[in-house]
Write a structure and sequence with these properties.
Layout (H helix, E strand, L loop, with lengths): L9 H16 L6 E3 H7 L6 H10 L3 E3 L4 E4 L1 H10 L4
Antiparallel strand pairs: 1-3, 2-3
Helix pairs in contact: 1-3
């Protein structure tokens, strides 16, 4: 049917989740977030743990031992250069 939305590629959706998490951590709101709060604030909380793990492995976020995450200097600079592209 013409009014149906095409299904989104899972890889594209995962990239979108990573961007949303990174933009939350570098936004004007709180500089540090709990993983649970990030999941509650995103429309589609599925895949948050995987996205955080991948961002951490890429060196874009730090994780504390008590479940909080915050952006690295590299992440802040990347968002500063690129902007928050939606």
């Amino acid at each position: 049917m013409p009014d149906e939305k095409p299904t989104q590629d899972p890889a594209e959706r995962f990239d979108e989740i990573e961007r949303e998490v990174l933009y939350m951590l570098t936004g004007d709101d709180l500089p540090i977030w709990s993983i649970e709060d990030i999941g509650r604030n995103l429309e589609d909380p599925g895949g948050i743990v995987d996205a955080i793990r991948e961002l951490h492995n890429a060196g874009l976020i730090h994780k504390s031992s008590d479940g909080f995450v915050f952006a690295t200097r590299a992440a802040w600079r990347m968002v500063q250069i690129v902007g928050q592209v939606v």
